[in-house]
UniProtKB/TrEMBL annotation:
Keywords: Coiled coil, Signal. The lineage of its organism: Bacteria, Bacillati, Bacillota, Clostridia, Peptostreptococcales. This is Uncharacterized protein. Residues 46-77 form a coiled coil. Residues 1-24 form the signal peptide.
Length: 228
């Protein structure tokens, strides 16, 4: 009886590990993604594999910096002598793909032929700087003055490219921007220097000329994307 119980536990453990692995593999790859592209330093569109995409993300993750005793702090002090003042203490900077901003950014084309055909896709996406929590204008000024990254309020990506679409499939383009970020605490002090409040915030800043700026996803499916 004891041996049967142990065998049953081992079988269940093995089945569970297989299910978890299968789920992880499936979740890592969107079946609608036909191809992924980035721009090279010359502005040319280059197709990359999913493995290369993952390596780029790993490199971005490896480049993040922990900030100890930030030297970029610039106090934001209103004109009134007894007004509160503000400071941003930066703790980390880095870059990441904003997959949460990925959406249908182009026209949707349908290949009604029996062979692969090329279609033109026009797409436009505007990405702006973003604070992850609500901040006052003085708090935002403290972040901008205290962070070690350069500020860029917005970027617009607007282009047209031709891609092949498989027969009897819909095709479209989705863009996921790569954004720099800074994170840390915005602290509020009274006029005597006593801390009154602190807020943790991550601020995303669009990249300006840094590579990669964004990933192009060429999508295919037998059905139109939602909303089209």
């Amino acid at each position: 009886m004891f041996r049967k119980t142990i065998s049953l536990i081992l079988c269940l453990t093995l089945l569970l590990s297989m299910s978890v692995s299968a789920f992880a593999i499936q979740g890592a790859s969107d079946p609608k993604v036909k191809a992924i592209f980035i721009k090279d330093e010359n502005g040319n569109l280059v197709e990359i594999t999913k493995e290369e995409h993952d390596r780029i993300l790993e490199n971005l993750q490896a480049e993040k910096k922990q900030i100890i005793n930030s030297v970029n702090n610039k106090d934001v002090k209103p004109l009134g002598m007894t007004d509160d003042w503000y400071r941003y203490d930066e703790e980390e900077t880095g870059s990441k793909e904003r997959s949460d901003l990925r959406s249908v950014d182009s026209n949707v084309q349908y290949n009604n032929t029996s062979s692969k055909s090329k279609f033109a896709f026009s797409y436009e996406k505007k990405v702006g700087a973003e604070f992850t929590i609500n901040l006052s204008s003085n708090e935002k000024s403290a972040v901008r003055g205290g962070m070690s990254l350069g500020w860029n309020s917005s970027e617009t990506y607007k282009e047209e490219h031709s891609f092949e679409v498989s027969p009897k499939k819909y095709g479209w383009v989705e863009i996921a921007p790569v954004m720099n970020y800074t994170e840390g605490y915005v602290r509020t002090f009274d006029w005597l220097g006593k801390q009154k409040d602190e807020k943790w915030v991550r601020t995303y800043i669009p990249r300006d000329g840094e590579m990669p700026e964004y990933f192009y996803y060429l999508m295919e499916d037998s059905e139109k994307p939602d909303g089209y």
